[in-house]
Specification:
Layout: H1 2-14, H2 16-36, H3 51-62, E1 72-78, H4 88-102, E2 107-111, E3 125-132, H5 141-156, E4 160-164, H6 176-193, H7 196-224, H8 230-258, H9 263-290, H10 298-329, H11 341-344, H12 357-367, H13 369-384, E5 392-393, H14 405-417, E6 425-430, H15 437-449, E7 454-457, E8 461-462, E9 468-475, H16 482-502, E10 505-509, H17 511-545, H18 549-574, H19 579-582, E11 590-591, H20 594-622, H21 627-654, H22 662-694, H23 703-708, H24 717-722
Parallel strand pairs: 5-11
Antiparallel strand pairs: 1-3, 1-4, 2-3, 6-9, 6-10, 7-9, 8-9
Helix pairs in contact: 1-2, 1-9, 1-10, 2-7, 2-10, 4-5, 6-7, 6-8, 6-21, 7-8, 7-10, 8-9, 8-10, 8-20, 8-21, 9-10, 9-17, 9-20, 12-21, 12-22, 13-18, 13-22, 15-16, 17-18, 17-20, 18-20, 18-22, 20-21, 20-22, 21-22
Length: about 725
């Protein structure tokens, strides 16, 4: 592979006009496709196989036009102090609001608070329920704007008005965080390379890659039902790996220049060596993202595949466009150690034999491997302890900041009607096979009333055929509580007895039940997903490193860093440690998607650092250095680049911690702390310590496996033996 990539790098350097033209044409084509494609709505959200989804599907059949999974909104009214919602003026304002809400283009129904007894006992609070034709993710912005305007009109009439429910759920906005991340990345790259031009290359190619990927997603969104949220993960990951991969190759190019090679030869060798690491690092990221299909949530699968496509584009751009741009840059990109005139006064490179900070740190670890290993493992183990108390769930309006109308509506409903009123359960009774469906409906209501944590049970509402009914159950506890989850399971457990007595089937659905089912699905999929991703990457790394112990160490180190990061997330967002510093206004269960999301994203980035750092060690070892010296050599060449890449990623992810959305805040914190743990404790401390302790055994591979595995030549041995320069060391390569 190294020889092929070497030739590709030289070809791209020579034919830079042609290569640049191809990528510009692809970007233009994708942009035109995105601009001319029909606008895509938000992707429909479904969880095949869950009870909540089965109930929604049944309601679509038995209650046509009901839009069972359609968006809902609760417009909550509170009377001024000393007044009641039943007062003449207040009642008139509410009735006017109800009439305005009914005119919405996507509105199915609006329940009048006075006709539906939706006024609190003390008369101070009332609410109007609004039902829409489509789900909250598919709702048009015009419908959301109309809802907000109507609420504001009621406020102008003197009432306190807040809006809750999923109708105000909007796709996460992107742009500002990426701009902040790119700005920080630019600063780090300038410091790393000492040159504005060299720093600009990774940024330029990463932006082009993300532009092509996101434009292609936009162009195909309508045809493939990708939705507007699909590009979010693609943007985040594409930007991250795009900068990383270009950074690796530009850094190796400058190192080759420092060894005295001509620029075309340096470009070829950079792509042949660092490019090989980029290819395999990219493959691990693609495996992690495509592996999200194991969860069997269509929207998550589409997001993973789209992001994987963007990563593949980032790899191709790094292998072709970077050497082409290096050809355009010419002598303006300095050899490693030299500074540009603007930033460093044109300082020459340092003496080649002089140790840098990376080699000094590696030498320290090699001298004291046991102490460093124990300190790193114990530290990460201590950080992972809170993960044993991990509770998973999906956030509701109660997790929103108090400044939002959704949170204020949630609090008003809790004040007027009880905490459980924010998460009613919808029980669907299928009596089609029952001889006496009406009796079955009454039996279900009676059984549910006798359960613990139930505040109210509405009478059954049958369909026109009389074979299916809906019963609304109001829990005592808030939607995200363990008690409400136990109640859902208790109702479902009653299903077998009900069916045995009446031949009627019982299904529990609604937003709260759907959240519980999604959490369970994600929880059940975590171990299979982890096994698939780590297993496939383990096999891939065996091919890369031609070793069994090095990939095993990489996988175990990754698991340790993820557990430690989950522990930190639990401590902050579930236990409330440092919640004031992080501006966490409401503690509660950790978002269900967090573990799988962290595994997928962090695993890909962690393997980037592992492949790039350890391939330099193996390269040195294969070329004759002792194992301990190879560790130091790997750090001398790779530590600075890996550190820069990690700092960039931490800065990008940390930018999301300032978000007002608790879910985004949690994702930003979790990913930032996970990259910190993995890059600076696992890769920079535990990895060299373990390799130093293993010595030559680290590179052991059974002879039978050595014969079976393909020789991908990541370390570039083929370049050394076939080089026409004649200046390379002709020592016999070490057999491992």
């Amino acid at each position: 592979m190294a020889t092929f990539l070497y030739r590709l790098g030289r070809l791209a350097f020579r034919r830079r006009h042609f290569v640049a033209l191809i990528w510009v044409a692809l970007l233009t084509l994708a942009g035109v496709g995105a601009a001319s494609a029909p606008p895509a709505g938000n992707s429909s959200f479904s969880i095949p196989g869950t009870e909540a989804q089965k109930a929604f599907d049944l309601l679509e059949q038995r209650f046509p036009g009901m839009s069972a999974d359609g968006a809902t909104a609760r417009v909550v009214f509170k009377a001024p102090a000393g007044e009641k919602m039943t007062d003449k003026l207040n009642k008139a304002a509410v009735e006017k609001t109800v009439r305005q809400l009914k005119h919405g283009a996507e509105v199915v129904s609006v329940a009048d608070p006075y006709a539906g007894h939706a006024v609190s006992r003390d008369g101070s609070i009332a609410y109007a329920s609004v039902k829409y034709k489509v789900s909250g993710m598919e709702l048009k912005d015009s419908s959301r704007d109309a809802l907000k305007r109507t609420a504001q009109d009621a406020r102008d009439a003197g009432l306190t008005v807040e809006v809750g429910g999923d109708a105000l759920t909007a796709a996460p906005e992107t742009g500002s965080s990426e701009v902040i991340g790119i700005g920080i990345a630019a600063v780090v790259l300038v410091i790393t390379f000492g040159s504005l031009l060299a720093a600009g290359l990774p940024l330029l190619t990463a932006i082009i890659g993300v532009g092509i990927g996101v434009s292609a997603i936009t162009a195909l969104a309508s045809a493939l039902d990708l939705g507007s949220t699909t590009s979010t993960l693609a943007t985040m990951i594409g930007l991250a790996v795009g900068i990383d991969y270009a950074l690796f190759i530009v850094s190796r190019y400058r190192a080759e220049l420092a060894e005295g090679r001509e620029r075309e030869e340096a470009a070829g060798r950079a792509v042949g060596t660092a490019g090989s690491a980029v290819v395999f690092a990219g493959l691990t990221v693609v495996i992690a993202l495509v592996g999200l299909s194991v969860v069997d949530i269509p929207m998550l699968t589409k997001m993973g595949v789209a992001a994987a496509g963007t990563v593949a584009i980032a790899v191709l751009i790094a292998l072709t466009m970077i050497p082409a741009l290096l050809g355009y840059a010419g002598r303006k990109v300095k050899p490693a150690g030299e500074k540009s005139k603007l930033l460093g006064g044109g300082r020459p490179a340092k003496k080649p034999g002089r140790p840098n900070m990376g080699s000094r740190w590696a030498s320290f670890v090699v001298r004291r491997p046991v102490a460093v290993l124990l300190l790193g493992v114990i530290g990460l183990g201590a950080a992972a302890v809170p993960a044993a108390s991990l509770e998973l769930g999906l956030p509701d309006d109660g997790a929103q900041p108090t400044s939002t109308t959704q949170r204020r509506a949630y609090d008003l409903l809790s004040e007027g009607f009880g905490a459980g009123f924010n998460g009613p359960l919808m029980v669907v009774v299928d009596g089609k096979d029952s001889a006496r469906p009406q009796k079955a409906f009454a039996e279900v209501g009676k059984e549910i009333k006798g359960l613990k944590d139930v505040v109210a049970v509405t009478p059954a509402t049958p369909n026109k055929a009389g074979d299916t009914a809906i019963i609304t159950v109001v829990p005592k506890s808030k939607p995200s509580s363990r008690s409400t989850e136990d109640l859902v399971h208790a109702i479902r457990d009653k299903g077998a007895d009900i069916e045995a007595k009446t031949d009627a089937k019982l299904l529990v659905t609604g937003a709260t039940a759907m959240n519980i089912d999604v959490s369970q699905r994600l929880n059940d999929a975590l171990l299979p997903y982890l096994a698939l991703v780590v297993g496939l990457a383990f096999l891939l790394l065996i091919v890369v490193f031609r070793s069994v112990l090095v990939p095993l160490k990489a996988a175990l180190g990754f698991l340790l860093s993820v557990l430690a990061a989950l522990g930190a997330v639990v401590a902050v967002f579930q236990w409330g440690w440092l919640s004031g510093l992080m501006n966490v206004q409401q503690t509660g269960p950790v978002m269900s998607m967090m573990p799988i999301f962290m595994v997928g994203v962090v695993f890909g980035l962690a393997m980037d650092y592992e492949v790039f750092l350890v391939t330099r060690m193996r390269e040195a070892y294969v070329h004759g250095e002792k194992p301990s010296q190879a560790v130091v050599t790997g750090f001398r060449h790779g530590a600075r680049v890996v550190t820069a890449a990690a700092v960039i990623m931490i800065a990008v992810f940390s930018g999301f911690i300032g978000s007002s959305e608790s879910m985004i805040k949690m994702i930003g914190f979790g990913l930032a702390i996970a990259v910190f743990f993995d890059a600076f404790i696992v890769r920079m401390a535990i990895v060299p310590a373990v390799l130093a302790l293993l010595g030559r055994r680290a590179w052991w591979l059974p002879k039978w496996l050595d014969r079976v595995l393909p020789n991908v030549d990541v370390e570039g041995e083929g370049l050394r033996t076939s080089s026409a320069e004649g200046r390379e060391d002709e020592r016999e390569p070490v057999r491992v």
